[in-house]
Amino acid sequence: MSRRRKYAVRLDGRILLDNLHVRPERKQSGIGRELLNHAFGWAAERHPGKAVCLEVLRDNSAAAAFYRRLGGQITKEFVERFPAGFDLPVVEYTWDADTVRERRAKMAR
Q1: In whole angstroms, what is the distance from residue 63 CA to residue 52 CA?
Q2: For the packed helices 97-108 and 31-46, what is the interaxial angle rounded to 10 degrees?
Q3: Which whole number is the average pLDDT over 34-54?
Q4: Which CA distances in Å does 21 have to 11, 50, 60, 107?
Q5: Cα separation of 15 and 6, whole Å?
Q6: Nearest one of 20, 90, 85, 88 to 52, comparing CA atoms
Q7: pTM here?
Q8: What CATH number does the domain containing 74 carry?
Q9: What does the alpha-carbon distance between residue 104 and residue 44 come to, in Å, rounded to a whole number?
Q10: For 73-78, what is the mean pLDDT?
Q11: Contact (Cβ atoms closer than 8 angstroms) between residue 36 and residue 20
Q12: Measuring CA to CA, which residue among 21, 19, 23 is closest to residue 7?
């Protein structure tokens, strides 16, 4: 099992969640919401007062809609060059520190 970190603290202080994926057969089961809420809880505990962000490929419309439903705000759009030598458009979604804290509080109930 890989012990690679799945987050990074950005220079601006936000917590970047990296590589959140749900297997296709598990979509629409609630596991994505549970995973993201767990990540918010972790971030609020380990990095209180910090916003959380993640990146998604622009063409991944299902993921983008999911993040918007959960209150993610588009904070950046850019083109990323991948190691294989191709470029793809990416959208960054951010949840402010208050939203992260509120989601953690809901989980604790």
Answers
A1: 16
A2: 110
A3: 92
A4: 24, 22, 12, 21
A5: 10
A6: 20
A7: 0.85
A8: 3.40.630.30
A9: 7
A10: 97
A11: yes
A12: 19
